[in-house]
Every structure is written in C-alpha cells, then in structure tokens.
Write a structure and sequence with these properties.
With 121 residues, the protein is an all-alpha fold. It is built from 4 helices and no strands. The protein is flat, with a radius of gyration of 23 Å.
C-alpha cells in the first residue's frame, strides 16, 4: 500500500510547495491564508504533507497489527524517507526507458550444500 501511495504523496507535496511559492510571488490572495507570508504558507504545506504521511504510515501499522511502540521511529521518519525518493522519481520521469535482459542462472546448488553450510556456522 505504501509503495503505491508514496508517489502520489510526493506529487501532492511538490504541487503544494510550487503553488504556494507561485501564489505568494504573484501576491494572489486566497481565502485560506489571506494575510500570511510565504514562510508560513510553506510551513503549513510541509506540515500537511508530514501529517498525511504520518497518518498513512500509522494506518498501515494498525492494519498490519504491528506493535506501534516498536514501529514509532519508522512512522515518525517515514516522511523523510519518502522525500528522499523525490529526486529519483523526477529523474525517472525523464530518463529513457531501461531495457531488461534475462539473466541465465547456470550454477546448480544442491540443498545439502546449503544445509551443510548453515550447520557449520
């Protein structure tokens, strides 16, 4: 679920930031924050992005019936992880399609070779 939702959250975050900057630079007033400055608007945009990411990751932990205290560090830092994907996703939009080739697996490993290695350790 998080894998598929992450790009949507990233796009919404970028759109929010870009629109905030454009509207502030053009001095366009709108009803939500009629007398606020650019930094306050950007702060709210980042806050909403973080809260949406926090709520989504928290919901996944609850749905998966994991223990919240053990997952709390991951829930709180998930936004930062998602934001590190932004440059990669932007590059992937404009990068030429990668051509995949099949890898031939010619090495044969028997199960007793694996079991013997595990038992020795």
């Amino acid at each position: 679920m998080m894998f598929f939702i992450s790009p949507i959250m990233q796009i919404l975050y970028l759109v929010s930031i870009i629109l905030t900057i454009i509207l502030s630079l053009l001095y366009v007033g709108y009803n939500y924050f009629p007398q606020t400055d650019l930094f306050y608007r950007l702060f709210l945009s980042i806050d909403y992005s973080y809260l949406a990411t926090f709520a989504t990751s928290f919901a996944v932990v609850v749905i998966e019936k994991k223990k919240i205290p053990k997952m709390l560090k991951g829930i709180l830092s998930y936004w930062f992880f998602i934001m590190t994907w932004l440059p990669i996703n932007i590059i992937c939009i404009f990068k030429k399609q990668t051509e995949w080739t099949q890898i031939d697996h010619t090495r044969v490993i028997k199960i007793n070779e694996i079991v013997g290695t595990v038992q020795e350790n």
